[in-house]
Each structure stands twice: as C-alpha cells, then as structure tokens.
From TrEMBL:
PANTHER family given in the database record: METHYLTRANSFERASE (PTHR43464), UBIQUINONE BIOSYNTHESIS O-METHYLTRANSFERASE, MITOCHONDRIAL (PTHR43464:SF19)
One GO MF term: methyltransferase activity
GO biological process assignments: methylation
UniProt organism field: Winogradskyella litoriviva
One Pfam match: Methyltransf_23
SUPFAM superfamilies in alphabetical order: S-adenosyl-L-methionine-dependent methyltransferases
Keyword Signal applies: no
Claim: Heme is one of the keywords in the record: no
Name of the protein: Methyltransferase domain-containing protein
Swiss-Prot/TrEMBL keywords: Methyltransferase, S-adenosyl-L-methionine, Transferase
Length: 232
C-alpha cells in the first residue's frame, strides 16, 4: 500500500516544514539524496531538455506526473491552457496551492480528454513502470492526442550504471531489460513500498513507438545519457 511519502515531502516543503531531503535507492544503486527544493525548481534551474520541452509546448497541455507543478506553472504564466495530473494526493494538493488552476488526482491511464501537447518530464518513461507495459501506455497517450498533437518525454540510457570503475560491464543478460529498476523512497524515517520505475534508451522507445503507430524523434541529448523525445 502506497503511503504517499513523495506527496508528504512536497507538502512539508510547501508548508514551510522542510528539514530533510528524500532518500532514494534502487536494486542496482545505493542511497542517493533527492533534494526537495529541486522538485520546486524555477525555469532557470531546469535542465536544458526540460526548458526545451516547455518552449515546444503549444495549445492545450497535459502535464502527466506533474509533482509540485513547476512545469505547469511556467506554461500557465505564458498563457497556455494546462491540466496537471498526478497519482499522488500530496502532489496535487501542492500543485493547487502553488496556483495550478487545473490539477487532478488521476493516474495517466484514467485520463480521457484530448490535448495538443502531453508532457512527461523528469524521466517521463518512469510511470510506464516496466517494459511490458510500454505499449499499453503509449497507445493510451496516442488516444489522448488532438490532430497534430505531440508528446514530449524524457528518459535516459542507464547502461552506464552497470559499469564498474575500470569500464567493465556487469550486466546480467538473464535479468531482463537493464532500464527496469526497483525504486525505494524514504523520508523522515518512513519507507515507501517498492515501486517499479522504467528508464528507456532512445532506440527502445523508438521501436515501441513504431509498434503503436507513433513517430518518435530525438529533440536533443541531455548532459548525462538523457534525452528529450517528441512523439507524434
Ligand atoms: C519524478 S516525479 C516528477 C515530478 C515532476 N514532473 C517534476 O519534474 O518535478 C514523478 C511523478 O509522477 C507521478 N506518477 C507516477 N506514476 C503516475 C501515473 N501512473 N500517473 C500519474 N502520475 C504518476 C508521481 O506521483 C510523481 O509526482
């Protein structure tokens, strides 16, 4: 059962109760700090590929997995019509408090309206959870597009995480696709139930897009094996 630790951390920050960060780890990596202020980043502190995604956004926009609503707020301030959705109750509360006009507690697969631009940012493929669920999610995203609509999504090729210091690979090929991770979150002494979180390299995303009739082009590479793709 999900405790919505992520949402609690966002709410604490929003309500002035920020005293520690979220700790993340995965089945292939040790503890890492996810600074909560990063989840409230202004445009100037966003990675270039997120800034690019915002610049390319047009028409009616859906921000999927909006978190605290940073991308939605920027677009809203530019005069675009934005709907933000997230499966975290705390995240939606915070997005509303920060001023996102249309923010709904809803998982992607339950969305039914149509949009000109759909944004999935900060490893947008994560919410697909695992490789076997990618086509279902892509088909659904495609069904939410208006004519000439576009999906802007970022992810990373994480093969580098399977390299040791001297460059040798310890990838176990029997283990399945290397971008499928188990993700663990903890915050203020509480642990979230394990989540599946998917990283997709560009070629795998492109192949999956072809099978559901979506075109997939790389918009730009990021600074660390990450990229922004445009699906249409
Ligand atoms: C890494 S955070 C990114 C938040 C925000 N986009 C940002 O860049 O700061 C991922 C977000 O996706 C949400 N999420 C996960 N699965 C989801 C789903 N199936 N539908 C909608 N939101 C989802 C999580 O609750 C979380 O807020």
């Amino acid at each position: 059962m999900k405790k919505d630790i992520f949402g609690k951390a966002l709410l604490d920050y929003q309500n002035g109760n920020y005293s520690e960060d979220i700790i993340t780890s995965t089945n292939i990596s040790d503890d890492d700090v996810l600074p909560i202020p990063y989840l409230f980043r202004p445009y100037s502190e966003m990675p270039k590929l997120e800034q690019k995604a915002l610049q390319l956004s047009k028409g009616q926009v859906l921000d999927v997995g909006c978190g605290s609503g940073s991308h939605s707020l920027w677009l809203q301030n530019k005069g675009l019509n934005v709907k933000a959705i997230d499966s975290s109750k705390g995240a939606i509360e915070v997005a509303k408090k920060r001023g996102v006009f249309s923010a709904e507690l809803k998982p992607l697969l339950e969305e039914t309206e149509r949009f000109d631009t759909i944004l999935l940012l900060m490893n947008g493929t994560g919410i697909f959870q695992e490789l076997s669920l990618v086509s279902q999610n892509l088909k659904h995203l495609k069904s939410l597009l208006k004519p000439n609509g576009q999906i802007l999504i970022d992810s990373s090729d994480i093969s580098y995480m399977y390299e040791d210091e001297d460059g040798g690979q310890w990838l176990d090929l029997n283990q399945g696709y290397p971008g499928e991770l188990n993700y663990y979150l903890s915050y203020k002494g509480e642990k979230e139930a394990a989540m599946k979180w998917l990283y997709l390299d560009f070629e795998t995303l492109k192949t999956a897009c072809l099978t559901v009739g979506l075109k997939c082009e790389k918009v730009m590479d990021g600074e660390h094996f990450d990229y922004l793709a445009r699906l249409y």
